[in-house]
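pinning this so it doesn't scroll away 📌
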Amino acid sequence: MSVEVADLSFEYASAAGPRKIFKDVTMSFAPGRFYALMGPSGSGKTTLFRLLTKELEPTFGSLSIDGR
């Protein structure tokens, strides 16, 4: 399964105004390969997985899995 992320931006709404999590992120994951997503707490790892599983919708940009 191939995964494509193009110009992805995402922000949460908060009482203090929007909180940007990602801005213009582009990446691709080839089928049959293993990848690791590493970073400190609060860097957006879980948010990226929630975007990939459609639990969240991106503010801007596109996500496709196998071309869909």
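📌 and the second one:
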Amino acid sequence: MTKEAAKPPDLANRDVLIVGGGISGVTAALELAGLGISVTLVEKGETLGGLAASFCCKASEVCNKCFACVVDKRIRDINNTDISILTRTELAGIEGGSGAYRVTLDNAGRTLEREVAALVVAAGIDPYDAHLKGEYGYGYLKNVLTARDLEVMLRERGAIFRPSDGVSPQKIAFFQCVGSRDQAAGNLYCSQVCCAYALRLIKMIRHTYPDITIAFHYMDIQPAGVHFADFLSKCRDDKSIRFIRSIPSKVYHAPATDSLSVKFVDADQGEVREEHFDMVILSVGMTLKKEAKFTADLLGMAFDDDGFIIEGSQTKEGIFATGACTGPKDIERSLTQAKSTAANVYQYVIGSGFR
């Protein structure tokens, strides 16, 4: 007599609420739905994808593993599922206990309620506000942009140009560690992803616009993934990319040449130098999304010394956190953690005997 085949678990009334529709939340939702779990995904904004959805492909002569294409694919995938997606929606309240939470949602001023077995916080991050670095002139010097501004320009307009006059730049400076590892900004941590992110963007620019020369101003270069060392070596071999180990102190308009004058310390010469550039690109760091603090407090989650949510710190069972809200991560690491979190949520839901 053969053994009866194991029956799949009864997943009725085992819904999961995911708070945050960035790449981590979308990935966790897709993973759980693929395992037969009913998912409601809520996002404060009007569209899914979060910050990563504004990124452009950074392929040069080869794929540079920026994972922007993966973000686009995941958003297409989730829009073709039966996952309940609520945009312009925030978590407003929670009652009950493990496996039987009743959550209140604010859906653009309309109150909704859901009964869920578990919640996943994927609240994401905000870029550091570059306006706070007044010495770099962001917001009033038109040709000073953040790396995200440049991403949007490339993704939506398909070209690089100076906002002041629409002219293609010939000389660009990238500044690293804007708002990270910065005592004056109150952020002593490294955002970890900025070096690789900026260099992929630079490599793509050099491939598409070979006449543009670039200065990469940095404090030190953080490793990012198993392939990064080879990629960094290729960037260093490109003589049109100058690596300058010095964080600039000041940017101002040079009217005589209609350019930006950048002041920095030349470590080799031991003196302050000024150099002119057509554009300056600021690689801003990560900070926890503002509304994430309310959500974390509501769910009894703690924060680390850098202000990010401590994964596993919740006082309630069935509450999980994933993505960059738990600490700075690039897209690749956010995808990996979201998949792992989804597996943990699934095991919790099917193993807790909920009815």
